[in-house]
Amino acid sequence: MFTARKKVITLVMLLPLILAGCSSSSDESFDDPFTDFSDIFSESANVSSVKDAYLGSCPTATLGEMADAFMSGVSWTDFPSSGGTIVELTGEISYDGYPATAQIQFELSGGSFEAVYLGINDVDQNRLTLSALLGKMCDATY
């Protein structure tokens, strides 16, 4: 068993070796895969076109502002569909007083889009519930 003095001596002897292994010379050249995050965090043009748009029912805030005001953990993705492209908004909401995950899908075709789907905790919701949720999201921006 190490005594306190032996522990200190061991630490003093190992510390320079540990620090030498962590240091690097400025003249070393290597490609750091973590220096350019633009590909990871950039949005597609499809996502931007929906996220930066205003709904007729909410002319005071973009969909992105509505999502950020009402949801937490907001994420946007897009993927092809048979009719064009789907832009999907996912975020955490409160539903009947409980935490829930909401997915709203917008069908993008040509220069316009339409909210076509709402799922809450992977359960399909009707269009009335989708419309009500978008209204609450708009109200959250005031």
Query: What percentage of the residues does DSSP assign to strands (E)?
Result: 35-45%
The main β sheet shows up as: 5 strands, antiparallel
The H-and-E topology, N to C, reads as HHHEEHEEEEEH
Outline, from the CA principal axes? globular
Mean pLDDT: 81
Strand tally: 7
Alpha carbon gap, first and last residue:
66 Å
Number of helices: 5
What is the strand arrangement across the widest sheet?
3-4-5-6-7
What class, by secondary structure content? alpha+beta
Low-confidence stretches: 14-30, 34-40
Radius of gyration, Cα only, in angstroms? 25 Å
Helix content: 25-40%
Please name the defining characteristics of this protein.
142 residues, alpha+beta, 5-stranded antiparallel beta sheet, two-stranded antiparallel sheet
How are the elements arranged and paired?
Blueprint: H1 4-22, H2 38-41, H3 45-51, E1 54-55, E2 58-62, H4 63-70, E3 72-81, E4 84-95, E5 98-109, E6 112-120, E7 123-124, H5 127-139
